[in-house]
User: Fold this.
Amino acid sequence: MRILTFEVQSARRGWTLEPMALDAFNLLVGVSGAGKTRIVRTIEQVCSVALGKKETEERLEQLRGASFAIDFEHDGLTYRWEAELEPRVGLGSEDHGALHSEEPALIRSELILQGDRPIVERAPERFLLNGHAIPKLDRAQSAIAVLKEDPAMAPLYRAFSRSVPLEALENLPSYGTQIESHFEELRNDYQSAAEVGADFTLPLHNKSEFLQELFPDAFAEIEEAFREAFPTVEKLKVQRYRYLGNERSKRWAGMYNMALTAAESGVDGMIPFADMSSGMQRYLSFLVHLSFAPPGTVVLIDELESSLGVNCLPAVTRFLLSRAPDLQFILTSHHPYIIEQIPPSHWKIVTRKGSRVRVLDAEKIPAMAEERSHLDRFTRLINLPEYEHGVQG
Assistant:
């Protein structure tokens, strides 16, 4: 999937994101409070609505009462999905108890177009699929989730499944847990490193172990990229280090912990992931999750510079740009180095007036259109009225 445009009208304090155009690589820049983080998190919430997963209920609640529209392309076709969500039911509502005894309604209306052709037209009183009336379906889920097995809707479900949750890259567990028999069963499910890369449900260390054991050449690529950023590292290895089962506990039989570890020159023994620097941990997360992510994957990253030291910012920036032809990145950053190193053609300036947010292409602003060095363009950026006065009442 590649998102083409996105807009939203939120019920929370009337927050509105005017239609914004998105490219293959997008760096959202702007002063604090302009709305950068909210944009990426709202995109993630919309993907959660599309997939209808139970574990994302908290995210869905944050979007209740909103209406949004998203244009995207997938497998050579263009789509538009518009939806209006039911507002949140307050604690004082007389319906509160009833809504907790069954799934609360989420979807008020939906319109899904393939090109100009309506696929779904959904309202409280009717449900049309390809122009034909069908029984009204569960309003606790989107049409994309409810009809994911339908031939017309399955591509849309696959499209939204190609989005990396923010927590996949932000969550840095110290170790992973696996059952040996389960590992042996799953190894037959992955025929290539790309299939491992496409499974965003795999936690960091588990995905690393599958790559190391099943596709060692792919794991070696990750190791080489990591060593370029951290030259003192000599080797990466996923080690099984603690078996949880014993003769008296059948429940834990065959279960073990594993973790990425690194051998570093001048240091005795392997360094466990938990003892690595935060910059090492985050860069490893990017490498493991994104090196073999399939084309068409949407990657959301908030505050790219978070936990990254100056010494690894160049490697991280180069790595993400190298994956840009295949993946769509929507990033936020305040860090001068990152903004300077990413071409201005990828900058999106976020401005807010009251509760209304606009996103401007930097190169469409005359002062940014001239050919200049990155440093000069960065200096011009932070002195633009659109940037300097990015938040207005």
